[in-house]
Amino acid sequence: MPKKNKHLVTSALIYANGPIHIGHLAGCYIPSDIYVRYLRSIGDDVKFISGTDEHGVPITIKARDEKKKPKDVVDFYYSQIKKNFEEFGISFDIFSRTSNNLHHETSSDFFLKLYKNGVFDEKESTQYYDESENQFLSDRYIKGECPCGLYDSAYGDQCEKCGKSLSPSDLKNPVSTLSNNEPIKKKTKNWYLPMDKLQSKIEDYLKDKSNWKTNVIGQCNSWIKDGLKPRAMTRDLDWGVKVPIKDAEGKVLYVWFDAPIGYITATKELLGEEWKDYWKDNDTNLIHFIGKDNIVFHCIIFPMMLIEHGGYVLPKNVPANEFMNLEGEKISTSRNWAVWLNDYLKEFPNMQDELRYCLITNLPENKDSDFTWKDFQSKNNNELVSILGNYINRVLVLTEKFYDRIVPTCNSKNNSVIKEIDSLKKSIDKSIKNFKFREAMGFVIDVARLGNKYLTDNEPWKKFNDDPVNVSEVMFNSIQIVSKLGILCEPFLPHTSEKIFNLLKIKRTDWKSFSSNIVSSGHEISGSAHIFSRIENSVIDDQINKLNSSKEKKSKVMPQKKVIEFDDFSKVDIRVGTVIEAENVPKSNKLLKLKINTGIDERTILSGIAKFYSTEEILNKKVMVLINLKPRKMMGFESEGMLLLAEDSDGNLSLMQPDSEIGDGSVVA
Length: 669
Description:
By secondary structure, this protein is an alpha+beta fold. The chain has 20 helices and 25 strands.
């Protein structure tokens, strides 16, 4: 028996700080799943590895925002993410997590090997430090202006606008994301991967990668051309894999050091001692599926780590995708501008493949793409329903009508339509092997188009009585085409493939069976069935309105104003007072004219709260008043201060009041 081709396919470890959205799916999880399902179908040996990255700074930010421990955050999202991937049909052999003890042990051992080999440079440097939070700031805790000049909210490790990888020192006007204060610089010791000294090894590794995507190798070459720089592999943080050496108290491994090691850990978890057969055998095809923001880590830093450790295979290919946008705008989790997989699975039950299809036909393989709900509806109704689903149903209906659902006989061996479909199958093979999944999906739909044309050209519904032998041949071939669609759909639309085989009442078969007649004469199949349903305008309108409502609500929230010094704030004099008189301002439906006892004096203040408080309601209320604001004239009256009010996202105003009895003139500090 010939030796099977061996593949180790990884899909990027997803941050366990939030749910999955369509950008994640289009970036790497659907492409990797297509590729792995195809390799399994042709009989190759493949292991499909992924999991959650649970040590990144985004985890600590999420925990901080939700007032939880990082472990509570990652436990919740790991369970949700794993469940959603399974429901959607992403067929990992293992979906692990970097908080596992095995991963901490594996990462520590890997770091120690490099440390003992003298790979790291130990050096003291000045790092950004937030004095108010009393901690050093990791890359993702710092924001500022990117040197490219295109974005003023770039993180300390990467600009999301231009894609350039950064160091915190590259940013202009940096601020701490913890406090929005300008950080200071403070000395600390860390261990650096001397990428500048190791650059030539990476150049040698990359020089024969002409078969890689141009967007991937182009980004790598750009980094090489600029000259690689040392990067710290440890961080001053309390959440992550502890640095396993002396003098490293309060430090953890850099997330981009330990995260890719997670692929190794997951393989160990899956295979035990056999993990070495995949990571340490030169016959292994190691393929990393990622999004473009992770190219440098998988194509330069991780290979550099593997080279310096020794004994590991290096990635054969890294077919990174670009970004998918949503309705013409960049997906933003903070603005809730996303289509969340968890929501989709609830709102579109049993319609996993409909979303898979739309994403596959719109994958950002070479440039950014755009998902719109109208396009989703169009591709479902005009392609899945009208072409693929319609063809399968036509064949089932005609077989039921003419043959009582029994597959007819066919004696002809000169079959041009089957040869055409075999040719399309070869095109699909080639496209998948070249990571052109959009193209491959198009060829699958072409098979259904060809089947529809074959039926239409031969008109079995007209010729059944006059030419039964020919009709029998046409229907036999049509049933074979349906079965071949079942095989071809499996990598792309696995739930659809399963439905096809169930309708044919046969066991699922694979790529190797494609050239033979899969359904025998005399076999009974199911009756007519629609495997896809039309999506109505109202359903799509609901999704668009849902998106826009979250956008509109978010847009009403005032952005934070510029950070001020404490000395500026100390100039503000806010006092507790009591409203002792109140009247409406003539010719104004917004203003109330109030007389307020401030404890220092009685003064007139005009406030735009007439829509929210009547004169009777506000009389005798305790209020907070800015009293050292320069007076200004309004509607013929001089206003000598300002009430403190809160405004919600809908523009409603509410008085700021002390929650207990306190005397007029008390200072708000």
